[in-house]
Design brief:
Layout lengths: L1 H8 L4 H25 L1 H9 L4 H26 L4 H25 L2 H6 L6 H9 L5 H25 L2 H7 L8 H33 L7 E2 H18 L3 E8 L2 H8 L1 H17 L6 E6 L2 E7 L3 H16 L14 E8 L6 H17 L5 E2 L13
Helix pairs in contact: 2-4, 3-4, 4-5, 5-7, 5-8, 7-10, 8-10, 12-13
Length: 381
């Protein structure tokens, strides 16, 4: 149970955040297109009967949805996706449906709100779209909140109105049925669970495909996607970011002297150390063998060099294996920065790799950036 809650509250990693951002953009586009098409209905009704308050408020709610949809599209054009946006848009979409049904209850016949067969079904579009954000927290928390909204509306109508008298006055709206309303709530809750289950399964399958099975880090196969996304984000917001290529020094000697199991243990410890020294917005990838690549978001040359140097010092203090036969090791790193060292992925990676080779040829256990300060370079191991 403890692991479930830790996984539940955990912020999506870089891969899922990227997928969630793509999902949010798709939802934003569909929102605008669907609302534009649905706008025909309230406009038509308003022309036919402009004095009907339900028609007026239906038009107002639809226009509000269109304004919100356009605002989200504009935001995503100039800003990167963050989980808070997924929460906000999901809450807005679900609450807008509830608002429309509530207005039907207030300005029209209350049975219109709880027996509606068109607006109510939009709930299922909203609940299905939540899964595209690739965030299980949104599915459960916001989905549960939306179900609670509708259940509260139904409970209010059932306890504050004489539903039988309302039905006798206007049978066109249909009778109030507790069993039918309970079924509606159950169906909505089921949609919430399906959305959550889809995200969990999707994350599991994606993680198997894009992660290195030994270290748990993102693998080289997914690196190009992340790298391209980082370049696009930096270009759009005129930001810098750093690429750091890291390599464990004399790793072949560790394998030859201590065995491959010990070598695997060293790589796992190194991967964990790199991760522990990064921010949530940064990414570390196992590029191959004993080589790792770091993408440091919104980081300039000096900050990237300092971060790589801090990692080098942290690794130099590590001891792996049993106390009687400890294994110590060091790392070398090369740093390149966008856009100073290039604006294309292969150019940046090549520049960082060249500087890694300089660090190796310079004695290892050191970091090489654009202009490394002499007093921060370590003596050779």
């Amino acid at each position: 149970m403890g692991k479930f809650w830790r996984d539940f509250w955990k912020r999506p990693d870089a891969a899922m955040l990227l997928a969630g951002g793509e999902g949010e953009r798709q939802v934003a586009l569909v929102r605008v297109v669907v609302v534009a098409l649905l706008l025909i209905t309230p406009v038509w009704r308003l022309i036919e009967n402009p004095s009907n308050p339900e028609n007026i408020w239906g038009f107002v709610v639809t226009v509000l949805a269109m304004i919100f949809g356009l605002a989200v599209l504009a935001y995503l054009r100039y800003r990167s996706y963050q989980p808070w946006l997924g929460f906000l848009t999901s809450i807005f979409d679900g609450s807008l449906v509830t608002l429309a049904l509530t207005l039907f209850v207030i300005v029209g016949n209350p049975l219109d709100g709880v027996n509606d067969k068109i607006t109510y079904e939009v709930y299922f579009l909203v609940l299905a779209a939540m899964s595209l954000r690739q965030d299980r927290r949104i599915c459960i928390l916001v989905g549960g909140f939306v179900v609670l909204q509708y259940g509260t509306l139904v409970g209010y109508v059932a306890t504050h109105y004489d539903v039988e008298a309302l039905y006798r006055q206007s049978s066109y709206n249909g009778a109030f049925s507790g069993a039918d309303q309970w079924t509606r709530v159950i169906l909505m809750a089921s949609a919430v669970f399906i959305s959550y289950a889809y995200v969990v399964r999707s994350q599991r399958l994606v993680n198997r495909a894009i992660r290195d099975p030994m270290t748990g880090l993102l693998n080289r196969g997914y690196f190009d996607t992340l790298f391209g996304y980082e370049i696009e984000r930096a270009r759009r917001y005129q930001q810098r970011f750093a690429v750091v290529v890291v390599d464990a020094d004399h790793f072949k000697q560790i394998n030859d002297s201590h065995g491959h199991a010990a070598g695997d243990a060293v790589l796992k410890v190194l991967a964990r150390t790199l991760q522990d020294n990064l921010r949530e917005s940064d990414v570390v990838v196992r590029f191959g063998g004993e080589e790792f690549v770091l993408l440091l978001h919104d980081t300039g040359a000096d900050a990237a060099f300092a971060k790589a140097e801090a990692m080098r010092l942290a690794v130099a203090r590590l001891m792996v294996g049993p106390p009687e036969h400890p294994i110590s090791f060091t790392l070398s790193a090369g740093v390149a920065v966008y856009p100073d060292d290039g604006t294309l992925a292969h150019v940046l990676l090549s520049r960082a790799d060249q500087r890694l080779l300089q660090a190796k040829h310079g004695g290892r256990n050191r970091v090489v950036g654009r202009s490394p300060a002499p007093d921060t370079e370590a003596a050779s191991a």
